[in-house]
User: Which sequence fits this backbone?
């Protein structure tokens, strides 16, 4: 799903139950949701976690912006 924030849209994926304990996976600045292997996601979901991954701005399915636009 796309979530709008500060003039950009970030691609976000959720894995596991909506009422599970949220676990946000953070990766390097150019990472996408594809960075996280099922071997990591599946055990977290099996333990009942709601795992959230996302594509950083300018990567994957998130908004690509003019390179002169500052990050905030």
Assistant:
């Amino acid at each position: 799903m796309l979530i709008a924030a500060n003039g950009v849209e970030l691609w976000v994926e959720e894995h596991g139950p909506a009422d599970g304990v949220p676990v946000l996976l953070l990766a390097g600045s150019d990472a996408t949701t594809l960075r996280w292997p099922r071997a990591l996601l599946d055990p977290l979901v099996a333990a009942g976690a709601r795992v959230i991954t996302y594509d950083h701005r300018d990567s994957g399915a998130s908004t690509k912006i003019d390179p002169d636009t500052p990050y905030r």
